[in-house]
Specification:
This protein has about 250 residues and is an alpha+beta fold. About 25% of the residues lie in helices and about 10% in strands. A hairpin with a 2-residue loop joins strand 1 and strand 2. The C terminus is likely disordered.
Length: about 250
């Protein structure tokens, strides 16, 4: 049976004045062409852009080649495609398709300021590493994040996906007792299980979160005394005023 070859080009949304298309005749080859579908989703939904807006950039603007949004896109797309290690990006950054994914005006990277960076459109592992270690405040870590803004953003993204408040929301939590490495140390950071706070701002029914008795089996005395909090949620529709707001929390 003869091989069925695809000869037609597949058109995607343009990148500025550049056409972006899948061409099956050869040329520059990438094994990650499926990531263009993720780019289409992001161009319509803007989820990564909203997430990136929760970061504060304190770098010298005159020396920046990769915006925070570029860095976040590069990292998120990498994780989505199975490249969990930032070291992988030292290879991925030379792929023009990845430059197009992030939205670089020159996906080949020939417009980079430093000659040694030309041909590499994206950030390397060291720059991405500094993004991920935003909690540190040193001369090398000048990008910070707003935890509350990030939490609110993902709730808002969920709410925006619904025309009205859903009647029921299922919160699927991992209740595994994760003992932190170094359990025997004296400081509090080495004891207990990972505690989670879940915020639910869209529902019309009261509810709560409960923890199985085994959750705190190997925790300190303070954490064994778990208190459960829940609140009845407002049933007002979005058209009647502000979004219903409430929170569920498991606290120690």
């Amino acid at each position: 049976m003869p091989t069925q070859c695809i000869t037609d080009k597949v058109q995607f949304q343009a990148l500025g004045r550049r056409r972006l298309e899948a061409d099956f005749s050869g040329g520059s080859i990438s094994s990650d062409a499926g990531a263009l579908l993720l780019r289409e989703v992001e161009s319509r939904r803007g989820i990564i852009g909203r997430f990136a807006a929760c970061f504060n950039d304190h770098r010298d603007s005159g020396r920046i080649e990769h915006s925070v949004e570029d860095l976040v896109k590069q990292r998120v797309f990498g994780i989505a495609l199975g490249y969990e290690d930032v070291c992988d990006h030292d290879r991925l950054r030379i792929d023009p398709l990845w430059g197009a994914l992030v939205g670089k005006s020159d996906p080949n990277g020939f417009d980079r300021k430093r000659e040694r960076d030309r041909g590499r459109a994206l950030a390397g592992k060291s720059t991405l590493n500094r993004l991920e270690r935003t909690a540190e405040t040193t001369r090398y870590h000048k990008i910070t994040h707003d935890e509350e803004a990030i939490a609110d953003t993902f709730v808002d993204i969920f709410l925006d996906a619904h025309s009205k408040a859903p009647k029921r929301i299922i919160l699927d939590l991992d209740a595994t007792d994760d003992v932190i490495h170094g359990h025997g140390r004296k400081d509090d950071s080495s004891t207990g299980t990972t505690m989670r706070t879940v915020t639910c701002r869209s529902t019309s029914l009261p509810g709560g979160i409960f923890c199985a008795p085994s959750c705190a089996a190997r925790t300190s005395t303070a954490r064994q005394a778990l208190s459960m909090k829940s609140a009845a949620l407002s049933g007002r529709s979005a058209s009647a005023g502000p979004r219903p707001s409430s929170s569920f929390a498991v606290t120690a």
